[in-house]
UniProtKB/TrEMBL annotation:
Function description: Component of ribonuclease P, a ribonucleoprotein complex that generates mature tRNA molecules by cleaving their 5'-ends.
Key words of the record: Nucleus, Phosphoprotein, tRNA processing
Key word Transferase present: no
A single MF term (Gene Ontology): ribonuclease P RNA binding
Major site of localization recorded for this protein: nucleus
Tree of life domain: Eukaryota
Annotated compartments: Nucleus, Nucleolus
UniProt record similarity statement: Belongs to the eukaryotic/archaeal RNase P protein component 1 family.
Source species of the chain: Elachura formosa (spotted wren-babbler)
Pfam family name, one: RNase_P-MRP_p29
UniProt name for this protein: Ribonuclease P protein subunit p29
Gene: Pop4
Listed GO biological process terms: rRNA processing; tRNA 5'-leader removal
């Protein structure tokens, strides 16, 4: 243990190192007080606020025509490679569409799958003019499918009150549009309940 003189010498030397700008008289004056407060103030780190990337509003997207397909691009042949990619995507998703695979397993995967590039046919509809429309799905929105037909015509088909069918490797699946009123991104996260089919 140190005696009082050693302790004073140690504190004096410590203060001299800590506050080199202070002279001996000022240090001695501080030692006469009971409490010694070291004049050290750490700099506060200022947190940089992250700027949120602001996307376009729905009105701006309409004005910029982001989702419109130019007339010269509305050709069935252009999108056939997209359909081939979609078929490979579904085969990989379902681990191959083999005959021994249970249909409800494939159906559950198709419910959440991306349908851009799929060839669909309107099999039932409350509006007879929609029945028989066949083509590749170019765009899927919450309420409609945009389909390009073999006649190079772009059709906007509502999901409501329509039944669609798609066929791949002999497996035929039916989509009840009234139960499909979701965006593709929302549908991938939704849990579908297995219920009996509902007629129009």
């Amino acid at each position: 243990p140190q005696d009082s003189e050693d302790a004073k010498t140690f504190v004096h030397a410590f203060l001299k190192r800590s506050m080199p700008k202070m002279n001996n008289e000022a240090i001695q004056e501080m030692l006469t007080r009971k409490a010694v407060v070291l004049e050290h103030y750490p700099k506060k780190k200022t947190k940089q606020k992250r700027k949120k990337t602001k996307g376009f509003t729905a009105k701006q997207r309409r004005e910029l025509r982001l989702f419109e397909i130019e007339p010269e691009q509305q050709r069935y042949a252009i999108f056939l490679p997209l359909h081939e990619l979609w078929k490979q995507y579904i085969r990989d998703l379902c681990h191959g569409l083999k005959p021994d695979v249970q249909p409800h397993m494939i159906q559950s995967k198709l419910l959440k799958a991306d349908l851009h590039g799929a060839i669909v046919t309107v099999t039932k509809s409350k509006c007879p003019s929609y029945v028989g429309i066949t083509g590749i799905i170019l765009q899927e929105f919450k309420h409609v499918f945009k389909i390009i037909t073999k006649e190079d015509k772009l059709k906007v088909v509502p999901k409501l009150n329509n039944v669609f069918s798609l066929e791949l490797d002999g497996f035929i699946s039916y989509i009840y549009g009234s139960k499909f009123l979701l965006r593709a991104s929302e549908r991938s996260a939704k849990k579908f309940k297995l219920k009996g089919t509902i007629d129009l």
